[in-house]
Amino acid sequence: MLKVEDLCYEYESGFQLKNINLEVKGGESIGIIGENGSGKTTLVKNLIGLLRLNSGRILLDGKDTSTMSVAEIARSIGFVFQNPDNQIFASSVKEEVSFGPQNLKIDNIEEKVTNVLKTTDLFKYKDSHPFNLSGGEKQRLALASILVMNPKILILDEPTSGLDLKNARKLIEIVKKLQKEGRTLIVISHDMELISDLCDRVVLMKSGEIIADGAIKKIFDDHDLLEKTRLDLPEIAKLSKILGFGVVFSPEELYRKWRASHD
Ligand code: ADP
Fold first, then answer.
1. Does the C-beta of 14 come closer than 6 Å to ligand 1?
2. pLDDT tens sequence across 105-149
């Protein structure tokens, strides 16, 4: 679905993305992780065409994205900003969600907007001003205004940062529903609980390079990689590793391993 070949990009400040190779298949859920400043956002901005790579290429369903406008890329790759205030500008919730489809001249806008507002539990606020929404609701509105365009790939940048537990859980529930429907997902986050909850594969970045790409449990079990990148594993994974059971992500899984070791 998405293939990145030898992507290189350099800011005037000197920071470089170096030889990024990445393949994303339909239906996958991938976490992009790494310390602050490792280049996660820069990579994603290249994927959505906000930044244009210096060399290499990005293929979206086989088509080179250097020949596509940002708007064209946005039909296939939806990007939800970390701070919803950067994305929201209309004077009502319904208007905000309708803006993208109107621009793209999509059919049945009314029906699509209604469905998405229901999916994100915002229908009751359809006529409210977005500024009157809570932080969690604004984050869901930012998601709704992207989802309504039905992108094949959804990229979320730190989707739960700044949300309280209840709102974070609500957002995760919605994202899980989208995964079940087969949506391809890329999540940037420093929250390894969130990443382990949503993703089976992680791409680990350091200093502008991908230094590991693979099954989350394998990467979280690699002591040297963790040291190098100062990743903070979920507490349950730390405990299970100390106990010698490898990486697990839930108490139930840890209990099963413990039982099995006593049989
Ligand atoms: P991450 O998302 O992993 O925290 P970023 O991709 O945001 O990392 O940033 C990578 C590096 O690029 C950082 O050193 C940052 O200071 C630098 N950088 C980010 N945006 C710009 C910009 N617009 N101009 C110059 N340098 C930038």
1. no
2. 888 999 999 999 999 999 999 999 999 999 999 999 999 999 999
Pocket test for ligand 1, best of 10, 13, 190 (most atoms within 8 A of CB): 13
Domain at 2-232: CATH architecture: 3-Layer(aba) Sandwich (3.40)
- Rounded to whole angstroms, what are the CA distances from 151 to 100, 177, 245, 252, 258? 12, 15, 39, 35, 42
User: Up-side HSE of residue 85: CA atoms within 13 Å toward CB?
Assistant: 5
**Per-residue pLDDT tens over the stretch 136-187:** 999 999 999 999 999 999 999 999 988 999 999 999 999 999 999 999 999 9
Find the 118 Cα to ligand 1 centroid distance in Å.
Answer: 36
Please state, in angstroms and rounded to a whole number, the distance separating the CA atoms of residues 198 and 211.
21
Residue spans of the domains in the chain: they are 2-232, 233-263
SS3 at position 93: helix
